[in-house]
């Protein structure tokens, strides 16, 4: 059965927001065209049209950024924490002032709904920066005494030039999540935003200039991952790499870093389980499962794409869930009513659609969605997919093992706790999990046995920036968040003083 979605096109011209322009790199405090004069096309996913060009940066651009960063490190790392705090707070304030523009730009660049960038993406950018600016003031280090014979104290020192490589799904949100702790700890940054969503990083460059960020402290280079991304990762004078993106890319980056003994943090893919026990609060669980499945078109690494429901509740949950999902509107990202906007790119949309085809071949039954959505007017060429629920699949089949990263979930019944733990832990990933039950003991017991770095009970995406965030198995190496990020971006040095 194919469900009908209300398609919306009546809102203001999302597609006219930004004029065709050539965005620039940000090096040594200045906006600079790429050395080669080479540019890549950037598409507006809601229309399928090219709307700006981004630098295809090369080694020469990197060399320039590196020398500016190295010079800036000598200065920035020697400044007081308070000095750095003041600059970062100014940056956060300027981001807030530009909130509306950034939110619209993120929505245009990525295809995600404007209400979402206003509510989540852009407020989190300023929050990330304030959080780590403040954390750096409270950051302390340990003292170990040796029975009156000696005292050890540990210094935590900034390391140098940090490479921050980020993905397209939460573009500025995740870029600032890396830049902020790196800078607060006294490092300088060369950042490489995703070539698929470069625009808000370009706006951030302008905001840095306005906020008085000293030249060279933040450098932003645009371009391909295999090109400029790898230049950053390979260079010996970039001793720290913080990466968020796909597992295959992470593996490649990890190999390069290992050869050079670099410090590396990898936040990668997920195939997260949503576990629904029969004693859950059904209404609240359905509500949360709809969000955790389809927010941001299902393009959040934390989205739950495998829904396991206890057998006795399965029929009731399934029909309530399908009913709610059918109400979701796919449409113009500017329209408040659109719960889902456009997929980020044509290639990605096609990949997700091919996973739906595969699921059908594997014997899955499409309960709703399962198709590309064609809007009319100027949004005709956009990349839209209806939210899709598939049932009848084995938990070990491909669609239940591989990351789809789109608005596609598989729903399956389970017999008991033991079974669902086995099913939940069956993938190579281990990023997050959510479970729903009113039984507190069961919640603790199951949480303890799920192999994921982040577990939510009766909620999803409730984020406290102090917690260790990251994945197990192929989902990640290391943890980001709170003082953990400051630990990552500093080198501990122990000093032993004999008494
Ligand atoms: P991607 O791996 O294709 O790209 C991520 C970044 O790496 C981009 O900036 C890209 O240009 C760069 N890159 C690619 N190849 C490179 C190379 N050889 N050297 C250096 N840099 C390179 O990922 P994506 O498609 O942009 O993002 C989607 C993926 O990100 C999904 O798998 C998702 O689960 C994951 N993700 C994980 C988290 C998390 O916190 N674990 C958060 C968001 C997204």
User: Bound small molecules, which ones?
Assistant: nicotinamide-adenine-dinucleotide
How much helix is in the residues?
Answer: 25-40%
What's the end-to-end separation, in Å?
79 Å
Overall shape: it is globular
| Portion in strands | 15-25%
Poorly predicted residue ranges = 1-13
Tally of helical runs: 14
> Largest sheet, if any?
7 strands, mixed
Strand order of the largest sheet: 16-19-20-14-13-22-23
Query: If you average the pLDDT, what whole number results?
Result: 96
Q: Mind telling me the C-alpha Rg?
A: 23 Å
Q: What do you see in this structure?
A:
The structure is a single chain. This protein has 499 residues and is an alpha/beta fold. It is 38% helix and 23% strand. The protein has 14 helices and 26 strands. The strands form eight sheets. A seven-stranded mixed sheet has the order 16-19-20-14-13-22-23, with helices on both faces. A six-stranded mixed sheet has the order 10-9-8-11-12-25, with helices on both faces. Strand 11 (240-244), helix 8 (247-259) and strand 12 (263-267) form a beta-alpha-beta unit. Helix 4 packs parallel to helix 5 (171-184) and helix 9 (282-294) crosses helix 10 (314-326). It starts with 6 loop residues before the first strand and ends with a strand. Residues 1-13 have low confidence and may be disordered.
């Amino acid at each position: 059965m194919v469900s009908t979605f209300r398609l919306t096109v009546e809102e203001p011209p999302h597609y006219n927001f930004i004029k065709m322009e050539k965005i620039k790199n940000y090096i040594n405090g200045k906006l600079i065209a790429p050395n080669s004069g080479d540019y890549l096309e950037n598409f507006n996913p809601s229309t399928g049209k090219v709307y700006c060009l981004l630098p295809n940066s090369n080694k020469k651009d990197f060399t320039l950024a590196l020398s500016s960063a190295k010079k800036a490190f000598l200065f920035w790392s020697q400044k007081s924490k308070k000095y750095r705090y003041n600059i970062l707070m100014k940056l956060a304030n300027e981001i807030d002032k530009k909130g509306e523009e950034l939110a619209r730009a993120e929505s245009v660049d990525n295809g995600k709904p404007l209400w979402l960038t206003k509510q989540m993406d852009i407020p989190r950018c300023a929050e990330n920066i304030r959080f780590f600016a403040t954390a750096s003031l409270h950051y302390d280090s340990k003292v170990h005494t040796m029975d009156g014979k000696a005292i050890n104290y540990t210094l935590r020192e900034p390391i140098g030039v940090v490479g921050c490589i980020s993905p397209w799904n939460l573009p500025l949100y995740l870029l600032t999540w890396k830049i902020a702790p790196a800078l607060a700890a006294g490092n300088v940054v060369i950042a490489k935003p995703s070539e698929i969503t470069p625009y808000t990083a370009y706006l951030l460059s302008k905001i840095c200039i306005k906020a008085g960020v000293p030249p060279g402290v933040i450098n932003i280079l645009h371009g391909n991952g295999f090109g400029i991304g790898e230049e950053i990762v390979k260079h010996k004078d970039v001793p720290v790499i913080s990466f968020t993106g796909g597992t295959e890319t992470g593996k490649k980056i990890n190999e390069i870093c290992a050869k050079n003994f670099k410090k590396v943090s990898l936040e990668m893919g997920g195939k997260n389980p949503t576990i629904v026990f029969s004693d859950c609060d059904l209404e609240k669980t359905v509500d949360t499962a709809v969000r955790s499945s389809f927010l941001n078109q299902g393009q959040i690494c934390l989205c739950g794409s495998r829904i396991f429901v206890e057998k006795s509740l399965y029929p009731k949950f399934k029909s309530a869930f399908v009913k709610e999902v059918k109400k979701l509107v796919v449409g113009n990202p500017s329209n408040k009513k659109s719960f889902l906007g456009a997929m980020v790119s044509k290639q990605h949309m096609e990949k997700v659609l091919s996973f739906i085809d595969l699921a059908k071949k594997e014997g899955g039954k499409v309960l709703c969605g399962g198709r590309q959505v064609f809007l009319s007017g100027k949004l005709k060429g956009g990349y839209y997919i209806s939210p899709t629920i598939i049932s009848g699949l084995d938990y070990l089949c491909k669609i239940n093992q591989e990351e789809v990263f789109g608005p596609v979930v598989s729903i399956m019944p389970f017999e008991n706790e033991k079974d669902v733990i086995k099913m939940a832990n069956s993938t190579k990933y281990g990023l997050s999990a959510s479970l729903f039950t009113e039984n507190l003991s069961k919640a603790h017991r199951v949480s303890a046995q799920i192999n994921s770095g982040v577990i939510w009970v009766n909620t999803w995406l409730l984020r406290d920036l102090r917690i260790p965030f990251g994945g197990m198995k192929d989902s990640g190496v290391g943890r980001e968040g709170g003082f953990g990020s400051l630990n990552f971006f500093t080198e501990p040095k122990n000093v032993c003083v004999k008494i």
